[in-house]
Design brief:
It comes from Chloroflexus aurantiacus (strain ATCC 29366 / DSM 635 / J-10-fl). The protein is an alpha/beta fold. Helices cover about 60% and strands about 10% of the residues. The protein is built from 20 helices and seven strands. Strands 1, 2, 3, 4, 5, 6 and 7 form a seven-stranded parallel sheet that branches. The model is unreliable at about 410-415 (pLDDT under 50).
């Protein structure tokens, strides 16, 4: 087959692929794009079409490879920009930076590339450099809420709180959806939370500042110096200590729940334990009564943020979530209102193997047995000397909690220090 014949065949397959894509036949389209590339590996438009297809399907690593092929065939601005954009989504920031810097070499005044470089440096935590790259984009994209959201984030981390507030308020005025408005209101709230601290910020403090999240810890800590764990298997003592702290805070704060529910089997022993200790019904997520009080969603090991989201959607009124161990932080930034600890890698609870070995009837009886053990341990576990101070952290000093909006409580205007 001659070179000209290959080029003709490649263009023919490309046309077929685009036609299949327009008629919503994605599998046939991608097959034709691949055939076009096989016939003519230098056909840039075929690589580009395949890359955009992969990007739309969420196959970002494949999209990056295809965009890289485009960039190798044509050293132009759009080839490098498209590749850099996908590399940011893959969090491959060093590679993405190279692509956007090449964009600036090809078009020194390009504002879009400067904005992407600002995102890259902010993601790395180099907020001063990110702020420098935002100088022109913030003027050019004066009606883009995302630019001012990023600007506020940089200023916040540089502790320029008044300027961060101004940027986020401008972003809020431009926000296109209720979801983005809520996100920005949370950002503004984080400024007030950050002002409550004058000393070194701990992991527990950070969770409170950025999300209003309550972090209780486990038997592995003192309730204040709480660090993310790695590849951790919980003991019943760990679970009992976290429950003990939860109960003390719930009673001191006078939280009122209509019941307790859970979206998964492995969390039922924990959910039943809390329900009985709080004197609340354990409710099936699939048959929830119409209650006016919020229902507490309980998860033992949270492997999937989507599971929490789905559970929330089933509630008759918005309710808070409590997760003993959040294990999804690499996949999602979502956090429940109350957590024990964050765990990276493998994470299990002590009853996991017990329940997996039983049939449905046996599981039901054994869940009650496990809950009984946990209740006894919680009630006989010696209290911590610093438990009152742990409780005061959230009831007196740092009261701007995410759970307040769900339990219809409000913090004071000026929390006590």
């Amino acid at each position: 087959m001659t070179d000209e014949t290959r080029r003709v065949a490649g263009r023919r397959h490309l046309r077929y692929g685009l036609a299949f894509e327009r008629t919503q036949h994605p599998e046939a389209a991608v097959d034709q794009f691949r055939r076009a590339i096989a016939a003519d590996p230098t056909l840039r438009d075929a690589h580009n079409a395949l890359a955009f297809h992969y990007q739309q399907q969420g196959l970002l690593a494949k999209a990056a490879d295809a965009f890289a092929a485009v960039a190798s065939l044509a050293d132009d601005y759009f080839a490098h920009f498209n590749l850099g954009f996908v590399l940011i989504e893959l969090e491959r920031y060093d590679e993405a930076e190279r692509e956007f810097r090449r964009c600036l070499e090809l078009d020194p005044g390009d504002v879009a590339a400067q904005l992407e470089l600002a995102y890259i440096y902010a993601a790395r935590g180099d907020y001063e450099t990110a702020l420098n790259f935002l100088t022109i984009p913030r003027q050019h994209y004066y009606d883009d809420w995302g630019v001012f959201h990023l600007l506020g984030r940089c200023l916040f981390h540089m502790q320029r709180f008044d300027e961060a507030r101004q940027a986020w308020q401008q972003s809020l005025a431009l926000a296109p959806t209720p979801e983005t408005q809520l996100e920005l209101l949370s950002c503004l709230q984080s400024i007030e939370r950050r002002r409550e601290f004058h000393a070194t910020i701990s992991h527990k403090d950070e969770l409170y500042i950025h999300e209003g999240v309550i972090c209780l810890g486990s038997a592995m800590d003192d309730g204040f110096t709480i660090r993310p764990l790695s590849n951790y298997r919980f003991s019943e003592l760990d679970v009992a200590r976290t429950i003990q702290r939860f109960l003390a805070l719930a009673r001191s704060s006078e939280w009122r729940f209509g019941g307790v529910t859970t979206p998964e089997l492995m969390s039922k022993p924990l959910a039943l334990t809390l329900a009985q200790l709080l004197n609340l019904p354990l409710l099936s997520l699939h048959h929830l009564p119409q209650l006016s009080e919020p229902i507490l969603i309980v998860m033992a090991v949270g492997h999937s943020a989507d599971l929490l989201t789905i559970a929330r959607e089933r509630l008759p009124v918005p309710g808070p979530g409590f997760c003993l161990a959040v294990n999804w932080t690499r996949q999602s930034k979502l956090l429940p209102e109350i957590i024990g600890v964050i765990v990276e890698g493998q994470c299990t609870v002590p009853w996991e193997e017990e329940l997996q070995s039983l049939d449905t009837a046996g599981q039901t009886d054994h869940i009650k047995h496990i809950a009984g053990r946990l209740i006894q341990m919680v009630q006989t576990l010696p209290g911590e000397d610093n438990l009152p101070r742990q409780i005061r952290y959230y009831t007196r000093h740092h009261r701007r909690l995410a759970i307040n909006a769900l339990l219809h409580t409000s913090p004071p205007d000026h929390p006590a220090e």
